[in-house]
Design brief:
About 85% of the residues lie in helices and about 0% in strands. It is an all-alpha fold and about 90 residues long. It has one domain. One of its GO terms (molecular function) is nucleic acid binding.
Length: about 90
């Protein structure tokens, strides 16, 4: 049960990460209100780094920002390790 919740959390938070990057890219193109970098990092920190990395590459958004270009993949590694450790404890 808890294992399923963790897996679904990881899937949904990363789908959300992709969508957030898409939304922020479109907002930037249209000159609309943007999502703060603080909130982008918060989403990545709580497990959405994979989705945000995919979104960053797919939508070519934030790719010139050093902190996003290198920080998201590093946080992705940390997210995956934490996810793996949590799944191991729940089994």
């Amino acid at each position: 049960m808890i294992k399923n919740v963790l897996v679904w959390y990881f899937i949904l938070i990363n789908i959300w990460g992709i969508q957030i990057m898409r939304h922020d890219k479109r907002s930037a193109q249209q000159g609309k209100r943007r999502i703060s970098e603080r909130n982008l990092w918060l989403l990545a920190f709580v497990g959405g780094a994979l989705g945000m990395t995919i979104g960053m590459k797919h939508y070519r958004h934030k790719t010139k920002h050093f902190t996003f270009k290198y920080g998201l993949p590093m946080l992705l590694i940390i997210d995956v390790v934490i996810f793996y450790l949590l799944l191991g404890r729940v089994s």
